[in-house]
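Morning!

This is the sequence you dropped in the shared folder:
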Amino acid sequence: QVQLVESGGGLVQAGGSLRLSCATSGSRSIFSTSTMGWYRQAPGKERELVAGITSGGTTNYADSVKGRFTISRDNAKNTVYLQMNSLQPEDTAVYYCNLRNTYGFVRWGQGTQVTVSS
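The structure's back. Tokens below.
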């Protein structure tokens, strides 16, 4: 059973930084061959893609976080990270980790709250 567990959320002042982690358990081979993503959902809004990273290391970002957030992965640790710098109040949301592969296998983490105070 593949499970994703996020950590690293919390309360930070505007301009501050946080690093989110998403540890995947159950299958190292599934993690290393999957695209990983970070999504977020603010109250009253739809869930949106923040950043993604393919198994080959190609990354993509939402325009709103380009230059501030960095996604990375460590296949040896089955973990994906999201380094968030220059945080703003509009970054406040529940952040979710996502795993998906070309065979249609998809998993979500339980989410971690990020709150940015002004």
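Headline: The chain has a mean pLDDT of 96.

More detail when I'm at my desk.
O.
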